[in-house]
Amino acid sequence: MDPVELFHQVAQTVPAYQAFLAEHRIDPQDVTTLQDFVRVPMTSKDSYTHRHPLPDLCRNGVIGDIIAVSSGSTGVPSFWPRSADDERVIAARFEEVFRDSFDARERRTLAVVCFALGTWVGGLFTVNCCRHLAERGYPITVVAPGTDRREILRVIPELAPHFDQVVLLGYPPFLKNVIDTEDLPWADWNIKLVTAGEVFSEEWRSLVARRAGIADPVKCIASLYGTADAGVLGNETPLSVEIRRFLSAHPDTARELFGESRLPTLVQYDPDVRFFEEYQGTLLFSGDNGIPLIRYHIADEGGVLPYDELLGFARRHGFEPAAEGPERPFVYVFGRAHFTVSYYGANVYPENIAIGLEQPEVSGSVTGKFVMEVVEDAQRDRHLTITVELAPGEKPSDQTAQAVGESILAQLLRLNSEFANYVPASQQMPFIRLRESGDPEYFPPGAKHRYTR
């Protein structure tokens, strides 16, 4: 992709971007080089998409033929139109996984879409992309039970014997729960997984592969990096998974590369359709979508690694990947910045939790300070865990913890439509840990408070 060329196309055809440039006193004719382009002000939900009517954000003021919805921190929805042409571009990411990792051109494949259906971006987008692959000649059949676990477990045993392989597509913890819930002959069905929405560990990949009878976790479990704003931005390849598994086993090397002790998702992206930049440890991208976006700040912590740079780094540390991946750049993603956590693919915002603690039935017992985190237990299951500071003089009790959990859950369900629809009902109640006022581990006096871990 030539980002300068895209910039000029958007400046000529998108009313909202014309207004954005005028507001910042940018003359599009002055942007002729990449150096000029990277000095153009960034866009974001707050500075751009939320400030303009939906038609003005689209090319020539025309809304696309389908709209996806994502919920923000206050529950106010964001609308993301797209067209069949947009989906065909995204389908290339699915095609790479199905073709190169799953050999889906030669195998009759049942694609079971376990993302949330409805207006939320994941389910219908995935259904449409899989159908685009079928149009391209892949022997793929799609069934879409969504997040209804009972329906998933009803249709798979009936349909799986008629196919060479079964691909489950969904959020990582949800797919694990599905595999764990029934004593089904998963190994007989040649299971593959396509995940999105959350970072998972390589230990998780290995564990789920064992439980699903997957012999090759490198090729048979692939994660997509996607957003409601622009669909799928990148995908794991066997090459990226091999490198990530090496880094997982060598945490000091991973820390040298990423500057963090935690391990991010590592994917490859197509520079012909996406342009990534790194800005203060977060990601910007430019791309032509239903709403064309220029230097859009998606608030994901991460960075960009050129192909030669990452392969050279791996080799200098004694690792030579066996997989022959595409010679395309890598992007790594820790997850959403701005104090959100991702749980079953839903962004959980501090504002949602704070409102739960402000309700009259619990507000007298707590200070309003809390820390939210997604904690993985010994079984590799993940739980939304919220540590709450009690008011001075209050002592932890099961009764208070129950009341706090119910109040927070009520507000999450009220304000966050992604949480309500993505997270299975059995996993929605948060784990509440109560700490006394001034707890030195979570609420040290005088320190700047962090609401996430």
Automatic annotation (TrEMBL):
The keyword Ligase applies. GO terms for molecular function: ligase activity. Keywords: Ligase. InterPro entries: ANL_N_sf (IPR042099). This is Phenylacetate--CoA ligase family protein.
